Amino acid sequence: MAAHTRQIMIRENRIIIALLSILSVIAIGMVLYQTRSIILPFALAVFINYIISPLITFFERRRIPSAISILLAIIITFLILNFVGVMIYTSIKSFTADFPKYEDRFNQILQQILQLTGIPEEVISTETQGLQRFSVLANLKGFSLSKIIVTTFSSLLNFLSNTFLVLLFLFFMLLGRNQLARKVQLAFRPEVSIKIAGILNNINRQIQKYLLAKTIISFITGVLSTGILMYFGVEFALVWGMLTFLLNFIPNLGSVIATALPVAFAFIQMNDLVTVMWIFILLVAVQMIMGNFLDPRIVGRSLNLSPLVVLFSLIFWGWLWGIVGMFLAVPISVIIKIIFENIESLRFISVLMSSR
Fold first, then answer.
1. What's the CA dihedral at 80, 84, 86, 88 to 10 degrees?
2. 119 close to 137: Cβ distance less than 8 angstroms
């Protein structure tokens, strides 16, 4: 009887813990959303910290002082971000100069699509009242390519405006990176500090392995995509390749967008449907080879995250922090999973998050 009562109490405690965890996640989500102007640059600084830490270690092994190694790594990071920003700015400027040409071509394609649907010419014309009766067609006719550009780049430009704050967080974070282990030892009992150190080392190892692998795969994918687009004469091929590199850090959804955008642009730029189809086939082939062959072999299953968890994290962090949140979704999920693995009462959540 006592054993049965104990089992009921354990089950009830687990239910209470699960409900409290859900409420805590909701509360934390609201706090993160309201404080995103500060928390997001900090999260980005942590993300960049994982990327450039091997570079700092490389400098330190050459007997360069730690402070100078950090400064060199930050300067290199700033130059890369500045290069990306200049590339995006010049591309937008060039695109804006040629905008009437692309918009005219876009409107021609739209007219052809509407005509293929069998809609009478007088309904398509903006001068007739028929168009006003079809709200969907009215929206299509009022659709402007400029709206896509503004929407697409607004998040990115907002991110670039916070670059200084990100670098500031990053600098102080890197200065204190070697002091964290010592502070943990001073703050906790030996057995607790050893456990915390193990958790931190596990997080660092998995995140750095994931980011290094994704960087290599995304770079190769971006180079191959740029080469394909240049071969077929697609304008802004370098920008599309850079965008492919960045979007491949977003699992699943990123590769779809990285393929769809240059193909759609090539369709607007060119009149040759066969060429556009070849571009589409080759870009999809690159994504499939990288995603299904190289990615599993380089990244492996070390992250052990359920695909459903990855999808949910993309939706949640994307809603919370926009496109930057999608970049951070997998690393954040890995950190949460590792922390839950080491807390007895929350270990069952870690099991639910795993892929096996």
1. 180
2. yes
Q: Which of 302, 337, 339, 331 is nearest to 50 (CA)?
A: 331
pLDDT of residue 25: 74
pTM: 0.71
Q: Is residue 324 a contact partner of residue 44, using CB atoms and an 8 Å limit?
A: yes
**Crossing angle for the helix pair 237-247 and 190-231, nearest 10 degrees?**
150
| Token pair 């009887």: residue | 1
**Domain that residue 19 falls in:** 1-34
Low-confidence ranges of the chain (pLDDT < 70): 1-12, 95, 98-99, 112-161, 296-303, 356
Phi, psi of 128 (to 5 degrees): -95, 165
Give dist(CA 348, CA 128) in Å, integer.
63
Q: In the chain, what percentage of residues exceed pLDDT 90?
A: 8
Q: By C-alpha distance, which of 153, 162, 158 is closest to 42?
A: 162
Predicted confidence (pLDDT) per residue in 166-205, tens digit: 878 888 888 777 777 777 777 778 777 888 888 888 888 8
Q: Give me 100's structure tokens.
A: 């009437």
Residue 77 in domain: yes
The tokens describing 72, both together, are: 């060199």
Domain shared by 25 and 82, yes or no: no
Radius of gyration for the alpha carbons in the chain, expressed in angstroms and rounded: 25
Q: Which two tokens stand for residue 318?
A: 């994307």
Residues 6+ apart with CB under 8 A from 249: 214, 218, 327
Residue 286 is given by DSSP the state H
3-state secondary structure of 141: helix
Structural domain includes residue 108: yes
Indicate whether 22 and 57 sit together in one domain.
no
Q: Residue 302 gets which letter from DSSP?
A: S
